[in-house]
Queue: 2 jobs
Job 1
Amino acid sequence: MLDQLKRARDRFFGARESGTSVPVLDGPLKPNHLLENAEVFFEATGLEDLCITADGCLMVACGSSVLCVDASGKSQTVASLTEPIQALAAYRDGLVVATSGTLHFIGERLSRKLFQIAKPPFVGCINALCAHPDGSIIISEGSGRFGYSEWTKDLLSDGASGRVLQYLPDTNQLRVLKQGLKYAYGALVDAHGGIYTSESWAHRIVQITQGNASSVFQDMPGYPSRLIKADAGGYWLTVFAPRNQLVEFVLQETGFKQAMMANVDSKYWIAPALSSGHDFIEPMQQGGVRQMGVLKPWAPARSYGLVVRLDEGFQPQYSLHSRVGGNHHGVTAVAEFHGALLVLSKGASKVLRLALSDIK
Amino acid sequence: MESSGAFNRVRYKYWPDRAIGELLSKNWMETAVPLLVLVLVIAVFASLVENFLSFTSISSFLREGSELGLIVLGLSIVLIVGGIDLSVGSIYAICNLLVLYLVHVQEWSAVSSIFVTLLVGAALGAVNGVLIGYLKLRAFLTTLVTLIVLRAIYNLIQFKWAVGIASTLPDSSLWEYLGSGKFLGFPVATWIFVVIAVCFHLFLTRMRGGWRLLAVGGSRRSAYNSGLPVSSIAMLAYVASGVFTALAAMLFAARVDSSSADTGLGLEIVVLAAALLGGIRLGGGKGSAMKAVLGTLIILIVTNSLRGLSVQAGFIRIALGVIMILAVTLDIRWFKNRGKAIRELYVSPGYLPMPKAASLSGATPYAVNNKLGDIELIGLGQVESPEDVILDVDDHLYCGTRHGDIMKFHAPDYKRMEVYAHIGGQPLGIAFNSNGDLYVCVGGMGLYKVRRADQVVEKITDETNRSWNTVNDDSRLRLADDLDIAPDGRIYFSEATIRYEMSEWPIDSLEARGNGRIICYDPRTRKTQTVLKNLVFPNGICMVGDGQSLLFAESWACRISRYWFDGPNKGQVQIVIPDLPGYPDNINRASDGNFWIAIMGMRSPSFDLAMRWPGFRRRMVKRLGQDEWLSPNINVGCVIKCDLSGSVLESYWDKGGENHPMITSMREHKGYLYLGGISNNRIGRLRLEGTDPHFIQHPINTR
């Protein structure tokens, strides 16, 4: 009721929450075709996350196994788990890997150690990990209600149950750094020990300090996800789906939204997606009608490929794109490896390779 | 609330959203709104105030109204050229005093006094006019200053002359007649006002000067560029305002015969409120005599009635202020954004529960394949928007393009292309009659014919009978879509929607209402008659072959129906396929006696759901730009074949929608299937195995 009144007020005075407008891709976010034209480095079904271990090996989470991929693209299974892997990070001289609600340690010292974070019956929704210099692990959990694969449901349910956690393996302690986030997706620790995460449904990156979350980069034209440090200073940010005016509108249409979640297969919801355009049952918007055999580049997008380079102050410097109608959409992870940027497109289930010297 | 089907069905079936939107888009609505307010005001106060309708009260009311009305007319002229005149109250006071002084003290004749007063009014208006028109000062500030200065002057001379005026009585029958005389039972002042208002109306609507006023107010720059003397027109508007005010002051003086310190005090607010309430725009370029009159009457009734109810003067002022704020809000929110508001109100989605779509799974005739994935393409990049394709007996291929041409591709290789005929509007469905003349449905134009002998384009019909129960005139054909010709020569064609133009047809998909119809043209009587109404985007039309019935497709309802136009079942409609998985377009005969149906796009579950949420769609239309609206998925289509009973036999798909997206028509001809699409730049050609290699859909009668 209060929401309805607020919306009525906002509509009367214009903009604010009632607005369906979306920031445009401009300035450092000006579209290009770098991601779409990038060389395919590695391809497998079920790709999820990337990391580089302390000894410089590239580790790829793929389905329920961890693969070690060399510079030529040859892969070798390092570990196999019983559940799909949702995130991984280098930890000391090994790896820490997360399934839906459990941390698994792989490597020498802590090998085979398990730690369960999710409390049944909820399966958990860990989606990013990062090692803290003090030996703890920073964990982001997207939602407290829906599993990782049900992220659109969390979005359409106005989800605000994400958490950032800190786990100390030595003492087996788990601390909640911040809860009530609108889908925490990504974990980053900067050189001074500051902890950051992306708050996807709020379209911003936040710094977590003593139970508070403060924006460091906001009003993004998409839903941000994982973050890593760039070797040359600054950060890489992946944006896994674009914001769309129709989706912004549907998010405000409580009744329709619920009817859609109840009656329609989640693939065909009016919601962002990791890839789109391959199924003619998907919802479409009028700007997306092919004219004379051409899909207009400004057509409204359900999925998009976007990687943003941020400076030390989390301000965007430049970006890599795969535009509407392209294939390399739904980017969820990046890594710097042998002078190249590896980009994991979950939508296309490919790892792309761009020489760092080519993309500035 | 909204998800409950029964409520929505009733709400969206009987509540006249559509009629309201159409009514509001009429131009005369701008005058109808103040008229409605007037009726309301009369109704309210007639029940509250005693003697509201008595003859004496009406008579004095008319005298007062005429004076106020004259000033409102004057101010209207200024508002129409895009200015504002706040000094009317002071000019009014000065002229009032002046004419009294001349008649009472100087004992001039009434005629010369009035003449001089009008001149002074003109001169005072000219002060404003020169400052604003030629020196380009801001109208608001300038007239605010003259308001104050003239009021000060008035106070000085009023103090000197008041005693003289009060102590003498004029001896002039004309003066008396003006003040209290009657003609045909109505006060003289009222007659003067009526004559002036009528002249003002004629001037504004029928004469060059009036048009120039509107032009300057509508767009000053354009008026200047087209050579109008903008400065002098603006100046003259203020002069006119001064004269009208002087005239009103003179009538007031004749009626009351005395002056007081507060004559005309606060008058500008009353006058401005009246003009705005009547619907005269602050921004300029809009206004009429009728609006000024209506606004005056409303204001007068409100103030007089409040006075009659012995409300304190302060409260009346407050009421006026509130009315003015409301009027300004209306002015900004409605008149300024009228186009947008109408567009928002015009689209009126309906409730359309879609039946469950037929399955596309492997075991069904709809199973997705890629038979159209690598078909031969004709005219790639040479034709744009070939909605329908057709072949003649010599195998030449014809199609329409969005440039308004009928193109002809020469057999046998279809490489050579020429413009067969230029029509001007976009050709949609096409058919040959038995003489080989080409009949074409042209979007936005109607039904046309291209003669075989000399390729001359002739209009066959562009209107049908008007329905008695619609707000908008629906006799004109807006979107004639597809046609077929009965054996006796009658032409049946569909009009997809009566509410949108050719370029706007996607909007109709969001309405999902019965906006379309099937129309019959009879060449023997040359009469055009609507035969079926309230169809949901009727599209393809195809004769069944029994001379009595035809099949037609309703795109947004995803169904195929059969309609009997003759024989024992005449007038009946029977649904043949109720649950297509996509949006049907054209229907044509196949060589084996079955029917081809083009499916221009596929249903998506979210869009189907939205069909049951009219409010959702209405808000979407209001709040999002057109490119962002939900749309039927028309990037991938297919062709299906069905028999007369409605069982689907097979389907042909272009799975990726790359080679031949959006199929709107297909035509079987001598063992090949030719494909057209309204958003394509190509025509497809598919070899059909095992079909009659001599089949022609429109054989020429050799009789």
Job 2
Amino acid sequence: MKPECSEYQRKIARSLMGDLTVEERRSLEDHLATCPHCRAEQESYIRTLDIMKAADNEPVPRHFFVYPEEKNLNPWALFRLMKPRWQAITAAVAGLFLFAGIGGILSFTRSEIDVIALKEDILKAAEQKNREAGSLWLQEVRAEMARSQSDLTQQQKTELTAAMNRLDSRMTGRLTAAEDRVRDDTKQLAVNLYRTVAQDRARDLSFINLRFDRIETRNAIETQQTDAILDTLLQAAELRLK
Amino acid sequence: MSSAIGRTSSSSVSSDRSQELSWVVESRRGNAQAFNRLVLKWEKPIYSLAFRMLQDREEAEEATQEVFLLAFKGIQRFRQDSTFSTWLYRIALNHCSTRIKQRPSGISLSLDDNGAVIHPMDKLAVDGSQPDELLRAEQRHRVLKALSRLLPEQRAVIELKFYQELTFEEIAEVLAVPLSTIKSRLYSGLEMLKGRLGSQD
């Protein structure tokens, strides 16, 4: 390292920033040609600036700004602002969404009927089984009673028959109540299911609408940008012609 | 080497300026459409500036939005003795430094010290099958970390000179600081960056 190097090293960054006079630059270049130490310093600066370029051109999130006049535009006005090509695409997409929506609603209604019918079948089968089990038990009790009847007095027989009848009616009553409860539960279940699915559908629809609005906004902005670019190009062309 | 930074040719600059001036005049009359043109023209540089100053994508988005809102509200006060960009850069830098000052101390950086965290956006943008892209993302991360170590005023000068390609005179106008101060901030900042980024590996 030569004694004058520190003087020159201060000028290396300045030369890269275009901040030297012609004479200063010439004398720096002469020095660099003979001094490997200062050349290394210059290379280090050049590398730094090269790497710094990597942080340039940040990807900009598109259209997160509020463009004041857009708020006043309804979807139809936006649609009319679009270029014919975009209008056609938007219309096609809208048609597709509409079609899909109607199809979805139809298929949903059908599936709901199926679910209810299935539940009804299951309920009937369960009732049948309950009834069978109940009557079987009663029959057994009656048979047992008939076997031991000979040992009983007339009064005991009457009391037993009355007790049996009470038991029978209570059983039937409980069975009916249970059936009603299950039926109500099933109805509630179906209502809840319907409500959940309807809510989901509404949410999906609003989401689709939101998406759709965004697409429209973006198209409008793209059109504006294209206009701006065209304006600028035209002006540049005019200037060149002059 | 005359200058590391090339500037656009003068004829397109002058037509640009006159176009911009007409948008400014229209904006002052309350024409939002004209102001939108200004936003579309300047959102990228202002967002990049905010991102490098604040080191956080979401905060940069917010800040950019706010800068343009401030500009829209204040366009009546914009005297046309400077260019629109000078005025806008001044608002943007003031706003960024306000935001930095308002931060609770201790959580000033979103980038951690060992550099392990790469923003999800970077991951999305990077295709693993392309080594070049991966390298670029890594370099970008290194640069941002190095920039975050500078003093805010050094970062501002480097931003305006290197990334926004302003002249020293324009920078002095934006920051309302003497030329000599600008230059000393620039070169001290560059020297620090060279220490972190200039080594050969």
